[in-house]
Each structure stands twice: as structure tokens, then as C-alpha cells.
Amino acid sequence: MITSRLDTGGAEYLERRVAMLAKLADLDAEHAKAVAGGGEKYVDRHRKRGKLLARGRIELLIDPDSPFLELSPLAAWGSDFPVGASVVTGIGVIEGVECVITASDPTVRGGASNPWTLKKTLRASEIALRNRLPYVNLVESGGADLPTQKEIFIPGGRIFRELTRLSAAGIPTIALVFGNSTAGGAYVPGMSDYVVMVKERAKVFLGGPPLVKMATGEESDDESLGGAEMHARTSGLADYLAVDEHDALRIGRNIVKSLRWRKLGATPTTPHDPKYPAEELLGIVPEDLKIPFDPREVIARIVDGSAFEEFKPLYGPSLVTGWATLHGYPIGILANARGVLFSEESQKATQFIQLADQSRTPLLFLQNTTGYMVGKEYEQGGIIKHGAMMINAVSNSSVPHLTVTMGASYGAGNYGMCGRAYDPRFLFTWPSAKSAVMGPAQLAGVLSIVGRASAQARGLPYDEEQDAAMRAMVEAQIEAESLPFFLSGRLYDDGVIDPRDTRTVLGLCLSAINSAPEPEPQRYGVFRP
After folding, report:
1. What is the pLDDT of residue 213?
2. Would you say 240 and 197 are in contact if contact means Cβ atoms under 8 Å apart?
3. Closest CA to 412 of 463, 370, 473
4. pLDDT for 429
5. 333: closest CA among 367, 286, 358?
6. What is the predicted pLDDT for the residue at 175?
7. Given pLDDT bands bounded at 50, 70 and 90, which one contains residue 110?
8. Closest to 303 in 3D by CA, of 285, 322, 319, 286
9. Pairing label, strands 319-326, 340-341
10. What does the pLDDT read at residue 210?
11. pLDDT for residue 146
12. pLDDT, tens digit, for every residue of 56-101?
């Protein structure tokens, strides 16, 4: 049992809590932009047509009072496109079955797909495939955003490829079509296993009447060309004809129910609440990420019963490793304690990861790292080869990985602690997090040293005033590009979350992961460092 040493009445704790609450207020404001869709004008117009909004459709589709884990809600943040990327994605429970759900937001440019829509949709289909989750598409889209076609046409074909891969893997794909599904968007229902279309609302065609007129000279109307009733009676594309949106959602629920889907992974034991309240997670991470904090305080507030069996506690103390359960699922945890990873920590991590693979235990990485240690002593001591061992173990570990970035995530430490490039099943970020190749001041300083050395080699004077301006500009740029909203906007995580929700989010992810069977184990023994 972890005994907390957190002083929740102390000035330091209260200062950190205030800073985190300010960040969460900013996060709420950004999430509100995604929920607002295309804005009041287009939302009102959509409703006046008697149509449900994207999140309203999801709410009626999933089981009453069940959670919906929304993914990548800040996609496209900081770009020329609206926050949310005109699509809602996430994991919800339909008739007791966890499913990946995507819903076009037709209030944003008619639901047209822009480059960030593509990235977000592909991430959703990847989650469905890796975790063996049925995939439900709520479709109402005008196809590609034509001004950005050069960025989405060629890679956009992967959306249809992934639908066929899901079907080939025995994972059902279901399309509920509420409105237009035109051009390339027509292949979403075309390549789905089950298709439901709403009468007099759904329109599915490769080319609408104007394009057909231009291409062939043929005169046609929406209904005869691609209406729901035509597809149900004549083309056979629609498997079910719904009388309205509510009926389509009812049919969608019945389809999932008829799948008789069952999970193939581990069955959880009875969970126990942590001994310490989640509310206290708000005051753990310092505003200045150079100040270390004890990750055991986080672990104590997210794992069952605050029980943690620490592995190698006296060796490599900058990395905390050990075993716990979370919502009844066994997990192995790797958490940075003092930021820097030394050779001992790297070797400890390597052994622990292999032990987790041997026992088929999923791994949770709690990131707060400035990277691997540098300097002559550490280079001579083999930090590169030891760091490479850890990265090798992370890369080839076959159990599911989950990652939460709590604080810093700099340099190759991001890789060793299973950053996005290492394909964790899910990766979430706290509002306190920052991630980059190195800290802003360090990066600017390196550029300054290189510039100074270059000038000296050429026998030229070094402009100190220009150097100061360059450093300030670079620091500001790297600081802005290190922040969680910026990184989440580029889908380098699956969402920025309130620290208090960490246990719930991880529990939902562990449950989803266990829809799939355990992956095959590795075929070699554990290497002791």
C-alpha cells in the first residue's frame, strides 16, 4: 500500500492546484469550440431541418447512462480548420458492446473531410482494428474539402482500405447514413458490412446531378440517382431503410445486438477504489517542470486500493517500476521520478518490460522525462547502448501499452517511455505536459553555441544582440510547439484529459483493449541487466 506524503494543505500544493485549474479552464474553452461545431448559424439551420447533431446521434446510439470516451477532440487546433476537424470519434457501449464510433459533423462545411478529418478518422479505424472493436460510422458528409484535395485525395484512400481490413479481420463495420454521402464518401457505406439509410434524407452517389450532367449529359434528380429508397429497392446498397434518424439509430443498435459479440481478452477482478481522492491529482505536478515530483503520489490515486508492488525500488531510483491493478485489470507501471534516465534506469526498464511480456501484463507509462543523461562520464558508461536496450524492449514488447504524459516528455526519453512513435494502444496528456526534442532554453542555447563556433571558425565577430533576439524567438517558438493543445491538435495524443479523470479513462481503455485476445508472446527469455 502506498502511503501518501502529499501535504494537501501546504502552499506548494495549493499553488500547483491553482495553476492546474487555470489550465483546465483553458481546456474547457477549447473543448467548447469543438462542441459548437460550425457555429450557431449552421447548428440552427441543421436543427430546423429536423436533424440531430453529431453528438446527439451518438448519445441516442449508445446505452443509456453509459460513458463515451471521446478521442482527439482538439484535432486541427491551431490550424486553419475548426477545432475538432468536423468529425466526432470515440469509444461507446452499444447493447453492451464496446464499439468505435465516428460521426460526421455536418454543421462544419457540410461534414466535408479536411486533412485533419482524415488523420482523426484513420486513428479511429486503427483503434478499432488493434483492439478488435466493431466500427460504427454515422455518416453525413459532402466528401472531400476540395480546396485541400491535394493533401487528402491520395492518402484518403486509406479510409476505404481500413474498412475492408476491419471486415477481413472479422470486425464488423456498420454505416448509418443520415444525409449526403457523396463522391469518395459514398465508399464508406459501399465498403461497410451493414448499411442503414434514412428515407428521403440519405443521398449516396459518386457524382451528384450537376456532375452527372457535366460528365454524361444525363438529367437526373437526387432521389433516382442516389436516394435511400432507390438503394434499398434497386441498387441493393442499403440493407435497411429507416423512416427517420431515430429509427436508423434503433436499427443500428439492433445490428450490434445481433452480432453476439464477445470479448476475447482478460476478465477483470473486482476493482477497489484508491485510498486517496482523485481530486488531489490537481496539486501534484509543479508549474516548473524542472522541479521533480514523486509519481507514486499519482499511482496511489489511480490504481486499485492504492496497492503497488514496486520492482527494484533501490536500483535506478529515477524510474519507478512495479505491479498493480486498475479497475480489476493487472498492469505494470513505469513512471519517471526525477526526469533523467540513466544507464541503471534503462536496464531496469528493459528487464521489467520483458517480465511484463512474460506474464502477459499490459504496461502503463507515466511520462515525466527530460531524456537520457548526457556527458562524458555517461557516454563512457554506455548510456547510448543502455538507452537503446530500453527502446528496443519498448519497440518489441507485444503486450498492450498505455501512455499518460503528465509533465515533461523531451528527447529520446519520449521514445523510451513509449511516445506516439512507439504505437501505444492509447496515449493521453495532462494539461501540464510539454513535449519537444529538448527544452526551449536548451535548444536555443545549442543553436547559439553552434552559431558562435561557426563565426569564430570564419574569423568573424559574433553579433550578441542578434544572438539574444534569435534565442528569444526560438524559445518562444519551441515553448508554443511543446504545449499540449498544439500537440493534441496534430493527433500526437488521443486527447488532453483532466488529471482527475485518469483512472476512469485508463479503465475504459483497458476494457476496450481486452475485446481482443492476448497477443502472441515473445520467443526468448528475460535478459537480466
Report:
1. 66
2. yes
3. 370
4. 98
5. 367
6. 97
7. confident
8. 322
9. unpaired
10. 66
11. 66
12. 999 999 999 999 999 999 999 999 999 999 999 999 999 999 999 9
> CB–CB of 209/220 below 8 Å?
yes
More confident residue, 144 or 457: 457
- Record the cell numbers describing residue 509, joined without a space: 481503455
pLDDT confidence bin for 521, thresholds 50/70/90: confident
Three-class secondary structure assignment of 138-183: EEEECCECHHHHHHHHHHHHHHHHHHHHHHHCCCCEEEEEEEEEEH
Q: How confident is the model at residue 239 (pLDDT cuts 50, 70, 90)?
A: very high
The 10 Å CB-count burial string (b at 16+, else e) for 511-521 is bbbbbbeeeee
What is the CB-side half-sphere exposure of residue 350 using CA atoms within 13 A?
A: 21
Which one, of 446, 353, 337, 439, lies nearest residue 400 by Cα?
353
pLDDT at residue 519, rounded to an integer: 83
Q: 309 - beta bridge partners?
A: 323
Place of cell 494543505: 9
Contacts of 392 (CB under 8 A, 6+ apart): 350
Rounded to an integer, what distance in angstroms lies between the CA atom of residue 495 and that of residue 83? Answer: 13
What is the DSSP code string of 65-118?
A: T--EEEE-TTTTTTSSS-TTTTEEEEEEEETTEEEEEEEE-TTTGGG-B-HHHH
Q: Please determine, for residue 438, whether its predicted confidence score (pLDDT) is greater than 70.
A: no
Mean pLDDT of the 471-491 span: 84
How many CB atoms within 10 Å of residue 241?
A: 18
Q: For residue 524, what are the CA distances in angstroms to 75, 223, 354, 397, 399?
A: 40, 61, 9, 12, 15
**422 and 492 Cβ atoms separated by less than 8 Å:** no
- What is d(CA 428, CA 353) in angstroms, rounded to the nearest whole number? 20
pLDDT at 241 over 90: yes
- The DSSP result for 293-309, as a single string, is --THHHHTTTSGGG--E
Q: What is the dihedral of CA 331, 509, 127, 197, to 10 degrees?
A: 160
Residue 94's DSSP bridge partners are: 97
Is pLDDT above 80 for 118?
yes
For cell 513509449, name the residue: 418
Instruction: Please state, as a whole number, how many other Cβ atoms lie within 10 Å of the Cβ of residue 328.
Output: 16
3-state DSSP assignment of residue 4: coil
List Cβ neighbours of 203 (8 Å cut-off, separation of 6 or more).
Answer: 179, 180, 181, 182, 222, 223, 225, 226, 227, 228
Q: How large is the average pLDDT for residues 410-438?
A: 93
Q: Following DSSP, what letter does each residue of 338-378 receive, concatenated? A: SSEE-HHHHHHHHHHHHHHHHHT--EEEEEEE-EE--SHHH
8 A C-beta contact, residue 485 and residue 77: yes
